[in-house]
Design brief:
The complex is a heterodimer of chains A (289) and B (162).
Chain A (H helix, E strand, L loop, with lengths): L4 E3 L4 H10 L3 E4 L5 H6 L7 E4 L9 E4 L2 E5 L4 H5 L2 H6 L1 H7 L5 H4 L4 H6 L7 H8 L2 E6 L2 E6 L4 E3 L2 E2 L6 E8 L5 E8 L10 E9 L5 E9 L6 E2 L1 H7 L6 H14 L10 H22 L5
Parallel strand pairs in A: 1-3, 2-3
Antiparallel strand pairs in A: 4-5, 5-10, 6-7, 6-10, 8-9, 11-12, 12-13, 13-14
Helix pairs in contact in A: 5-8, 9-10, 10-11
Chain B lengths: L3 E7 L2 E7 L5 H8 L18 E4 L2 E4 L12 E3 L12 H8 L9 H14 L5 H7 L11 H14 L7
Parallel strand pairs in B: 1-5
Antiparallel strand pairs in B: 1-2, 3-4, 3-5
Classes of the chains: A alpha+beta (289), B alpha+beta (162).
Chain lengths: 289, 162
């Protein structure tokens, strides 16, 4: 790999200065995408900015308003946080479908997001959850919804010198839960043919009071399907509401044909997975009869 | 381009090396430290042949930059046996003939030991999922799984070494 430098900043300000000063520099957290891309010549990285030695970037903080997950927190660490697992089981399971144990001990959700693959497993779950990310850059800090980061395969909306420093999950509301499912031909070590994340809230009568549905690997980016959520709100998850939700999901699909699946299969499967995911989230939320 | 000076712990010994900013830890282990037990299979994190322990967690050393090792604690296949005393996982791999060409074996042993160190009573399903990131093209996996289950039983003292 033709790298000119390997930087180990200890503060976010130092990291931002290094990234802003060298347009070819790339932030490194788990490296499970970046190092593969450098090895195969697909990345033009000229220098590495390892963000793992920055205090506070590796770990999960829980304040009264939710969770702040540092950008260098590996996926397996999410499973160790009982409060996070209880509040956002769908996010934790999505992040822990990526690769193998070896990969998940390194890979991070922030990296999964910034790699901007439409098939990134953690991203539909984060989008459904209403997660945001904190971005540090030369002009200060900003916070944007997770779905605003990927704009096309391998392209993000991050500006020169910017890096994601944390992913924020909101406080879990009462009667709510989430889930993520993906379709792959085997059980491990594969990339989603289609993925679906659902985050729902039900009231004491079992009526859906809010729903966010996001799909992966079915369009150039992960897509938040607002109409799918609206189709469920106010319903008791009856067949008609579920089918309207699935139809909204299918309408939002703009997939490609590739070796993993055809356009027709991905569209049909997106609807199926969305229904199954909603049912799991509903059961977790305590809304199943 | 100047080389980076890295000090790290490998199998309990302090080691120093010089590396380029683009070298992987796998490159350095094999080519600088002459520890060739760790194998390069795919070089992209798919096969697990290069599995090592980094600060107590198993990782693919092909996906770790050598410079990242500064101040970290590394464990490799060379540190699994205690002197000439094989670890139970190594012994049960031999008992079950859980290898043929042997190229994947160091990665499997490191990964299996990592599982048994934290859970000496795994189910077969847990073993299979844990080892999903280690590929073997010879055995069909069954002998490997049986070897790990047997090593687990031995570690729980439910089975006497053969």
């Amino acid at each position: 790999m033709a790298l000119s430098a390997f930087h180990t900043p200890e503060t976010i300000e130092q990291a931002v200065a290094l990234l802003a000063g060298d347009p070819s520099a790339r932030p490194l957290s788990g490296g499970t995408d970046l190092i593969v891309q450098m090895q195969s010549g697909r990345s033009e990285a000229g220098a590495i900015v390892d963000i793992k030695r920055i205090a506070g970037l590796n770990g999960i903080r829980s304040d009264g308003d939710g969770f702040v997950i540092g950008a260098a927190t590996p996926c397996t660490a999410l499973k160790e946080d009982a409060a996070l697992v209880a509040a956002w089981p769908g996010v934790v399971e999505a992040a822990n479908l990526i690769g193998s144990v070896q990969v998940r001990n390194r890979a991070t959700m922030a990296g999964n997001l910034c790699n901007a693959s439409p098939a990134a497993d953690s991203v539909p779950a984060l989008v459904a959850a209403g997660a945001t990310c904190l971005i540090a850059g030369p002009s200060g800090e900003r916070e944007v919804p997770v779905e605003a980061i990927p704009v096309a395969p391998s392209k993000t909306s991050l500006q020169a010198g910017e890096m994601v420093t944390a992913i924020k999950l909101p406080k879990r509301s009462a009667g709510g839960s989430d889930a993520y499912l993906r379709s792959i031909p085997r059980t491990e070590m594969d990339i989603a043919v289609v993925g679906a994340g659902a985050n729902i809230t039900v009231d004491a009568e079992g009526v859906c009071t809010s729903a966010r549905i996001a799909i992966g690997a079915a369009a150039p980016t992960v897509v938040l399907v607002e109409d799918a959520g609206k189709a469920l709100e106010g319903s008791g998850f009856d067949d008609a509401a579920m089918e309207a939700m699935a139809q909204a999901v299918r309408n939002a699909c703009k997939p490609i044909d590739d070796k993993r699946g055809t356009i027709e299969y991905r569209i049909a499967m997106a609807g199926v997975l969305a229904k199954r995911t909603v049912m799991i989230a509903r059961e977790r939320a305590g809304g199943t009869a | 381009m100047s080389k980076l000076h890295v000090t790290t712990s490998v199998n309990g010994d302090e080691r120093e090396f010089l590396c380029g900013p683009g070298e992987t830890l796998l490159d350095v282990l094999r080519d600088e430290l002459d520890m060739t037990g760790t194998k390069e299979g795919c070089g992209s994190g798919d096969c697990g042949a290069c599995t090592i322990m980094l600060d107590g967690e198993m990782v693919c050393s092909c996906l770790v930059m050598a410079a990242e090792a500064q101040g970290r604690v590394i464990g490799t296949i060379e540190g699994v046996a205690e002197g000439s005393e094989l670890h139970p996982v190594q012994r049960t791999f031999l008992d079950h003939a859980a290898l043929q060409c042997g190229f994947c074996t160091p990665g499997f042993i490191v990964a299996a030991k990592a599982l048994l160190d934290r859970n000496p009573d795994p189910t077969e399903t847990e073993v299979r999922y844990w080892l999903a990131g280690n590929l073997c093209r010879c055995t069909g996996y069954d002998k490997i799984i049986r070897a790990v289950m047997d090593a687990a039983a031995e570690l729980r003292q439910e089975r006497t070494p053969a």
